[in-house]
Amino acid sequence: MSEEMVEVPVKAAEPLRAAGSLQQNRLFLDFFWDLAKPEQEVRLKAVENLIQYLKTQNKEDELEYTFKRLVDGLGHTRETARPGFSLALGQVLSAFEDVSLQSVLDRIKEKHSLQAVKKKLARNAMFGNLFGVLALHQSGRLSKEPQVVLGCVKLLQNLSQHKQHLKDLPNKTMTDILSEIPEEVFEEVLLNALQTDLASAFRTPEQLQLLLVALQRFPQTLKPKKLKNLLGSSTIINADNIPRLTEVLKMAAQSVKKERVLPAVVLDLLKLSLKEDSFQLFWNKAIVDGMLKEQQGPTHFLSFRLLGAALPLLSLSQLKEVLSGEVMMLYGEHVVTAQKPDRFKLAPEMDDYVSSFLQGCRDSDRQLAVMLGFSSLTNQGYPVVPSVWRVVQHLQPAALLGYVDWLKNAFLQPQMDRLLDFSTRKQKSNQEGKEQENSVFRLRKWIVARLSSIIDNHQVKKQEELIMDVARFVFFHAFFSTRKASADIAETKEKLSVPLDERTRGVLVNSFFGLLMSMHHLPLSDDSAEAAAVNQKRVLGVTADGNMWIYHLVQYADVLLNQPKHVQSSRPFSPEQRQAWDSMLESVANLKKKAKKGPSAESSAFQQLFLLVGMHLFKAPEELLDIMKDLQSCMDKAQEKKAKKKKKKKQASEQQQQEEEEPEWVEVMVDILLSLLSQQSRHIRQVCKTVFSSICPHVTAAALTAILDVLDPDRDDEEDGAVVVTDDTNKPQKKKSKDGDEDEEMEDDESDESDEDSDEEAEDEAMEEEEKDDDEEEEMESEEVDQNFRLELMKVLQQQNALATEEDGSSDEDMDDDAMMELDKSLSALFSEQKKKTQAKKDEKAKLQKERTLVREFKIKVLDLVEVFVARQAGSPLVLGLVEPLLTIIDRGMSSNSEQQEQDFLRRAADIFRNQLCRSKVYCRTVGDRQGELHDLLDKLVTKAQKLSDSSVCLYYFSASLYVVKVLRGAPPAETKDDPTAGRAPATDIEFMGNVDVDRVSAVFRDALSSFMSRRKSPLTAQMFTDLFSRFPVLCVKLLDTAVQNITSGVRDHQQGQACVLVLRAMQSREVQQLLHGAPWTKLCGSVTDQLAASLQNVGQAESKVVKEKVVKVLELCQFVVKQVRHQKLSVDLDPLQNVLQPLTSSIAFKKTGKLEDTYWAVMKHFGVTKPKVEKTKPDGDADQQEAPKKKKGFLPETKKRKKRNKPVLEPAGDKSASTNKPGADKGQAKKKPDKKAKQKRPADGATASQENPSKKSKTQSENQPAKKKKKKPKQKKE
């Protein structure tokens, strides 16, 4: 036994030598674990590391083990692991070319044999074979070993029978193998093996794909004669094979129903038809007459995708034929009927197909054919492609020119018979007599939007001539018509085949002003020579010659107005309007002359304004005539004033100051801008901002007041001169169309398209209207009945004796037919009148709501002017006049139940006030003689802030008061800034308060602070006064005594705590410490110490949360004051404070609030008292010791242990046994276990075993049997 025990470590010593290699192999084995992990990055890294390791080590046994593990892993139960092992096997075979592929293939067949594997693991074996072949294919060495190719193909043929598991993967793998092997290998090795698959090509899409790939790769082998032997015909696509091909295509369509992709076999068939010159046969018979005859679904979608994928492959004639056929018609119906959100839409895929075709095609004719084909696909005149179709940006310049010409010709002479027009089933059932006129209108509406979107899209490569051509075309047909052709005007050479109606002109007008907006933001063309230099400045809205686009259009409009013989205006100018137009041209000419001498932003802004108002004369001449006159007079006065200023420069300074008074023309100009802002046009809004920005330096108080009057909430009920809402039903519609079509024209086109393309949606709208009517009736029923209406109803019923009473018991049955008819007529007239009254109330309510909306929109635009003024003239004294009006807007907006539009207005006003006015670094620093006025304003603001109920509004008022103090103080003198050496220089800089009446302002803020401390519900907050203290230390010093007093005199514990916070922030300020240097600082520390001691004296039993928070703040202030007194050695008596602090632990329980406890002991530390350490008591330790044995597991209770039963048996034994057992009985459980083991080992000695009696043996043997079993367990653990 002893020899065996010695031999065990000898055998175990051998692996010790190999421990290094075992540790090294741990890395090697981890590669295979990583190959099975689901993360793709981990698998790829494992493949890379495995190959690098094998190349570095170059051990045959490890390479052999690698192939074994990789082949085993091909059939892994985890699906994500199989590709990892397959890729690794392919890469290893590629790296170690001396390994035969045949041997690996044999391994794969042997390991994953379908005949030998259990049925449960058959699926894994199938995938093991498949991924094994894929690995051999990925190695790139298949073409070098033809027999392996044959073996792989035969294996894949066997696997193709198990489609329920592998689907079409075996056939796809065969296709991949065919696409890479040389023709010699195919002809010599594979042709016979694939004979059956190639002959049955028309059975499944996979087998047909195999044949098509073979035809593409090996045309010399699969010659027509060979094809005839295989298929019975020398070509694939012929009249006899069309039915079978159609069935295969249907199968292919169903197979990709979920994937929603185009099967490769279908595109290969199309390519083969082009190669065999049988495209028309294939398209017309297989696609149109075959696939499209099925119900709408996968077959139709496959045809649509094939149409998109075929675009790059087809010639010009084939493109025209396909894009005007049945497939396009059905595609259009799909686009129209798939408008609802829950339906599948193929249009985005088609957009991608067309976009990729246009990007890759350089033939302008084919590009134009595709664009015309899709633009000609119309639903009752409206093209199915959106008017903002972005694919136009890929067109070549020649194709773009041709496309624009086609759009213009289609607008002028719409030939509906040449369009691929269709109607849905529901549209056909609802056809009306006006279908032709409506279709022409829909087509023209789309064309106008299409032309505008081409200009609006900056990605489209277009020349300036094209942009101007489109703008002139839209402008001409919006406002003019041709009388006689003129050589000078290109637009008069073509005549309209269908006259323009008012609806079309309205669309043209709105589109033109939207086009003006787009041209206003157009960058310079890249072709211009100056583009590189000018683009650095980002000049927008200017042509290469430096003139604005709108200027060229005004010149064109003037040419049209000056040729009445050839051109007729749709809205002729009156003599007065024509005079205004001519004066506008003259003013612009004068401005351009002055700009040549010295260009300025002001002249450019005025030019824009004149030109824009001039163009809007064509749209609303009556409204803008007065504005044009006022604008002209303002311009004249401004120029005269400037001229006078130049002449007076040499005169005395007194006369110069008189001349520098702002002229009246600015006020008129502001009124003009306000009037223009009422127009629903973003272009006008931007130009008004630009113009106002240029005249900001000249704005007077009266002009600013005119702007603020518009924003005044008190004037909401008054009728504003700039916004007029009339009862005319046409005007609101016009305003709505202006806002929708001009401001967001592209979005409107999309909405029009979605609204008008489908009659289904029209029917849905009709249903919604009916439901709306029903709802209105229900509302009428639910509303309280008007008492007058009740009386009228009772009167009618009494007149007809139809009112039943309890006395006569009459009923409707007692009335004859004539009486019933008379009653019906009376009731009908009464209810009809009541309905009219109710509708009139609703109309009035809607009108008021619309008026409020228009006024609010107008005010939001006016805020633009305020924002511009604050940004440009922040240092002007006039800015101070904005404080109260903006605060009034904020106050009213916060208190009202505002809608979204009101909230936007309020948010905008609050942002201007706080971020751009109060927080601006530039502010008015020349108060002059307005000191008293500003002090009154400050007093008013602070008083108002105390009376408010909303703390958020109060914050704005308090911020305004701090802004007024900042303005009164002004900038400190420069001398103090430049003298850093003087010791008192920083202090004098801090003490500087400019024009502030410190005593008066301190009194104002002291009252506010007292109000905050003495009121239970005050809108003021501690943060407001903290800002005041940090920004104005002088005022802080003045208010400190009030804050210190309120440490004890505050109305509640909360206010007392906030007083401590304010005092602490003030005393922490360096500026305050400098101002109170010396005796005042010592006095302050003493008074604060007394107040703190008094405050802590009154604490009592602190149980509430508020009291504990107050105590924390008091202790924080205590900590700072005591630290300052100790550090600076101030003569302040701290004993009273210490006496109050020491018994504080008895009144406050330091349980949950750790901050309170930490702060308290931090204060006491300054007095030399440290936090006592908590010592563990013995009872806790004994309890732990008693509980310790309970945590041990696996020990029997004392009553169950065998040793107690063995004691009487073992006592008579020798002294040796008795002496060994006694210690074990007295010791604890930890020492009993070794004794048991000693007992169990003793019978192994012959001496001790022979001394025992036979009777003892029988007992010990029976009792030692379980002991022997226990003896094995420790040995197993040791080993």
UniProtKB/TrEMBL annotation:
Q: Where are the transmembrane segments?
A: none
Region entry Disordered, spans: 644-664, 714-785, 1173-1279
Q: Which segments show compositional bias classed as Basic residues?
A: 1190-1207, 1230-1241, 1267-1279
Return one GO MF term. sequence-specific DNA binding
Compartments (UniProt record): Nucleus
Bias-annotated ranges (Acidic residues): 740-785
Asked if the keyword Ribonucleoprotein belongs to this entry, the reply reads no
Q: Domain of life of the organism in this record?
A: Eukaryota
Q: Which InterPro entries match?
A: ARM-type_fold, DNA_pol_V/MYBBP1A
Q: Which UniProt keywords apply?
A: Nucleus
Got a GO cellular component term for this one? nucleolus
Q: Name the protein family.
A: Belongs to the MYBBP1A family.
Q: What is this protein called?
A: MYB binding protein (P160) 1a
